[in-house]
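Review this today:
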Amino acid sequence: MSRPDQLLRLCLVMVTSLGFNATDVDAASVRLPYVTADKIAPELRAAAAHGATVDALLILRDQADLAPAELVAVRTARVAFVHRTVHAVATATQAPLRALLDALAVRYRAYAIVNAIAVEDVTLDVLQRLAARDDVAEIESDLPVRIDLPGPVAAPAATQAPLPPGIEWGVVKINAPELWALGHRGGGVVYASADTGVQWDHPALKTHYRGWRAAKQKAKHAYSWWDAVHSDSSGNGTNPCGFDSPTPCDDNGHGTHVMGTGVGDDKLGNQIGVAPRAKWIACRNMEEGFGKPSRYLECFDFFLAPWDAAGLNPDPARAPHVISNSWSCTASEGCVPRSLRKAVKAARAAGIFVVASAGNSGSACSSIATPPAIYPAATTVGATDANDALASFSSRGPVTIDGSGRRKPDLAAPGVSVRSSVPHDGYGVLSGTSMAAPHVAGAVALLWSARPDLRGEVGVTEQALHAGANPAVSAAGTCGGTTSADIPNDLFGYGRLDVAAALQALP
């Protein structure tokens, strides 16, 4: 079997080699309703017309019931419970469908955090056969689509007071140095980012990488890195990092930049990160700017219980405390509003804090319209500039794409002209809500460094972030019937992040 074929069955092997079966836990499940009569997404049916083959995501009807996770007090036990439960349900329900796919010689990859299977190069006839099964709730598109990631911008004008030497303006703005002065820099916390990859040996990131072994001056990437890019999506047949990269690599630069804002510091004056003593891990979920739902899902699966370099032996004890997501899964990629909802809910149920960028489709109202930013289980972040003005590009609420009218975003953070690490050991300036999200994720790392007793207490930590936020954000207009005078609102939520005030607001 070729390596690509082996990789397509990695999660199948992972599910069936965990050393337990469904009877070891209460593998309670809930059944999803059928979305439409034929279950096949219309855009997927259209793409598969006239004999064309497509990639699709099969969502199974039986999904893990994770409500009992709330009763598990200890975070490590909670992560283990969620991991056990989702894999027990996947093991118990996927076998008949996998057997059919094997018989049809369909290439596939199985997941557990959402009970789903991604299939490759299938015809409409095969899709219809799969849709006829009772164990399949719906079939979504898994076609790759290019994403608009933030590009370089001009350096900001001097519009603020002089900064402390070497500390980036956004880090100062959210008052992170106040926690540093108390000895809280993120120590003991694991920070994760799913993005375009990372230059792991960048001077600002290398010593903060969980896989780095300083004593041996070498890295061990198992359990700290996973490449969910297994094949070409851009159409050029190649990738600067290759596919299934065994070492962290960034084929775009975006991932290295956002990671630096979360944890970066080269100890030579480039204090770019909010939580410089946190340890980071990463998963690549985009291929030269092209994303697809299955890759996003695979990274969530990896973070719930990181596995070794072969994709085996998952260990929930190595799960990160916080995940920063500076990406969005658009409708053009096949992501309907519910696509990744259960993955984000499962991560939160495990006590993992999920942060999502709001998107760069402002200043229109209800422009927060894509997963994972639309979900209540994620903390959604808009972007502000150095003068605490809401960026014109920052997406606004309320969320109407799913009919909920949900208020979003939750917070705002520095996202205009943010300087951070870029590949080839450099530093560059980018703007976007992508740059704002890691400020909040880094702030969570600082808070949980200061208060180890609250690690995994996502709701309590969210409330403190909301209570400590600075509401004095300049934002014109009305969205969802709210203006900047209403706190919270659908422009910037509770306000601009202030991690020092949030620490004071913790119980």
Observations:
- The chain has two domains: 3-143, 169-505.
- Confidence is low (pLDDT under 50) at residues 1-26, 152-163.
- The longest strand covers residues 54-60.
- The first helix runs from residue 3 to 8.
